[in-house]
Specification:
- By secondary structure, the protein is of the alpha+beta class.
- The chain folds into 2 domains: 2-51 and 266-399, no CATH class; 77-254, no CATH class.
- The protein has helices at residues 2-15, 17-54, 81-90, 124-128, 141-146, 155-162, 205-213, 231-245, 261-304, 306-314, 319-356, 364-390, 394-399, and strands spanning 59-64, 67-68, 71-72, 94-109, 112-121, 133-136, 150-153, 171-174, 177-185, 200-204, 220-225, 256-260.
- Helix 2 (17-54) packs antiparallel against helix 9, helix 2 packs parallel to helix 11 and helix 3 (81-90) crosses helix 8 (231-245).
- It is elongated.
- It starts with a helix and ends with a helix.
- The relative contact order is 0.19.
Length: 401
C-alpha cells in the first residue's frame, strides 16, 4: 500500500512539476539556511580556538596597567627585567617566561623598504609561543648577553624583502642599525584579532633595549604554564608576587593585568556558539513557512482532485488509503526539499568557508536533524489536507464539477 501511495505521489508531483518545485522551495531554503548557519558558526568557533591556541599552549599574558575600554591605564609603572626574573624563579610549574619589548620600525634590504614590528625577545619566546624555526637558528646565549645585532624574521617580512631569495646571512637595517639575519620563522598567519603574526622582526631583548628603544622597560611578558598544571593557580601566584613587588597593599587595585588565554578562548567560543544557535533558530523559522506552503498546496490539490478522490472512495478505497496517499505525497515533497537543501547547504558552506578563510566543520548530526525535521514538516502540515480528502463523502465528491 505504501509503495502504491509513493508511486501515486510521484505521478502527482510530475504532473505539476513547477508548482511542486515552488512548494518545496521554502523547505529547501529552510534546510540549507539551518545547515549553513550552524556550519559557518562551528567553523568560526574552530578558527577562534585555533588562532588563540597558535599564540602558545597554556598561555598567560602579563602587562602593566589595567585594560579599560580597550586600552590600558597610562599611569601604571612598567614591568622590569627583575620582575620577569622573579616570576621565572618564584612561580612554580612554568614552562617559559618570555619578556617582550616592541617598537614599530622600518626594515630595509637593498632598495626594498618595509615597515614592520621589531620585538626584543629571548629564546623562551619561541617556547612560549610554540613557534618553530623555518630556517637558521635561535639566538646564541652570547648574543643575548652582549646585545648583538642579529635578527630573526617572520614569514611576511621575508616575502616582502627577499621574495624567493635565501635571507640567511644577509644584512638588513632596522632603524639606523645593521642586523645579520640568522633565522626565519614558520608562518603562523593571522591572529584571532586579525593582526598578521608573521609581520615581525625579532632581535635580542638587550639589543632592543640598548640600541633601539633606549630603556629597560618590559611592556609585555608571555608566560607558558607547564602541561598538566592549572593556569588559574599560576595567575593567582603571579598576581600575588607582582602585588608584593609593586607594593600594592590592602584593597588597592592592581596596576597590572594577567590574562589567561583559556578564559578568553572560552568567552569567545561561548559567544559564537550562542550566536550560532540564535541564527540557526531564525533560519528554522523558514522551515515552518515552507510547511505552511506545503499545507496550502495540498489543500489546493485536494480541491482539484475531488472527483478522483470520490471515484476511489466509490469503488472501495478505504479512508486510510486516501489519507495515506495524500500524506505520503506531502512527505515526499518535504523530503525532496530536504535533500535539495542539504546539497545546496554543503556546496554553499564550502564556498563561504573558503571565502571567510575558516575551516569547514560540517556536523552530520545537524544535517540528519534538518532532513528529519523537513520530513516531519511534511507529516504535520500534510495531515490536515490528507484527512480532509479521506473524509469526503463520495457522492458529494462525484457530483462536484
Amino acid at each position: 500500500m505504501i509503495a502504491n501511495a509513493f508511486s501515486l505521489a510521484l505521478q502527482a508531483i510530475r504532473r505539476n512539476a513547477l508548482r511542486s518545485f515552488l512548494t518545496v522551495l521554502g523547505i529547501v531554503i529552510g534546510v540549507s539556511a539551518v545547515i549553513i548557519m550552524v556550519t559557518i558558526g562551528k567553523g568560526t568557533t574552530a578558527k577562534v580556538t585555533a588562532d588563540i591556541a597558535a599564540l602558545g599552549s597554556n598561555m598567560l599574558i602579563v602587562h602593566p596597567g589595567q585594560s579599560r575600554h580597550g586600552g590600558r591605564s597610562a599611569e601604571a609603572k612598567p614591568l622590569e627585567v627583575a620582575d620577569v626574573e622573579a616570576i621565572a624563579r618564584e612561580v612554580p610549574h612554568l614552562a617559559a617566561v618570555a619578556p617582550v619589548a616592541m617598537k614599530s620600525s622600518p626594515i630595509v634590504f637593498g632598495n626594498d623598504n618595509y615597515n614592520t614590528q621589531a620585538a626584543g625577545v629571548d629564546n623562551d619566546y619561541f617556547k612560549a609561543r610554540n613557534w618553530d624555526m623555518a630556517l637558521g637558528r635561535t639566538f646564541l646565549p652570547s648574543e643575548l648577553r652582549a646585545g648583538t645585532a642579529v635578527c630573526i624574521l617572520g614569514n611576511t617580512v621575508v616575502n616582502e624583502l627577499f621574495g624567493g631569495m635565501n635571507p640567511l646571512g644577509q644584512r638588513v637595517r632596522l632603524g639606523e642599525i645593521s642586523f645579520e639575519v640568522v633565522g626565519t620563522l614558520v608562518a603562523k598567519g593571522q591572529s584571532g584579532m586579525g593582526s598578521d603574526q608573521d609581520d615581525v622582526a625579532l632581535v635580542p631583548l638587550r639589543t632592543m633595549q640598548r640600541r633601539i628603544i633606549g630603556n629597560t622597560d618590559i611592556p609585555l611578558v608571555f608566560v607558558s604554564v607547564s602541561d598538566g598544571y592549572s593556569t588559574e593557580d599560576s595567575v593567582a601566584e603571579i598576581e600575588e608576587l607582582l602585588r608584593q613587588r609593586r607594593r600594592i597593599t590592602g584593597n588597592k587595585e592592581d596596576d597590572f593585568s594577567v590574562m589567561d588565554m583559556k578564559e578568553i578562548t572560552e568567552t569567545l567560543t561561548g559567544t559564537t556558539k550562542v550566536l550560532t544557535g540564535l541564527l540557526g533558530a531564525v533560519a528554522a523559522v523558514s522551515l515552518l513557512v515552507g510547511g505552511i506552503g506545503i499545507m496550502n498546496i495540498m489543500l489546493v490539490s485536494v480541491t482539484e482532485r475531488t472527483r478522483e478522490i470520490g471515484t476511489r472512495l466509490a469503488i472501495g478505497a478505504m479512508e486510510r488509503d486516501v489519507l495515506t496517499q495524500f500524506l505520503v505525497e506531502a512527505v515526499v515533497l518535504s523530503s525532496l526539499g530536504g535533500v535539495i537543501g542539504i546539497v545546496l547547504a554543503v556546496v554553499t558552506s564550502a564556498w563561504l568557508a573558503g571565502l571567510f578563510k575558516i575551516p569547514l566543520v560540517l556536523d552530520p548530526g545537524i544535517v540528519a536533524l534538518a532532513f528529519l525535521f523537513s520530513a516531519a514538516v511534511g507529516v504535520v502540515f500534510g495531515f490536515f489536507p490528507a484527512r480532509r480528502a479521506a473524509r469526503m463523502d463520495p457522492v458529494e465528491a462525484l457530483r462536484r464539477e
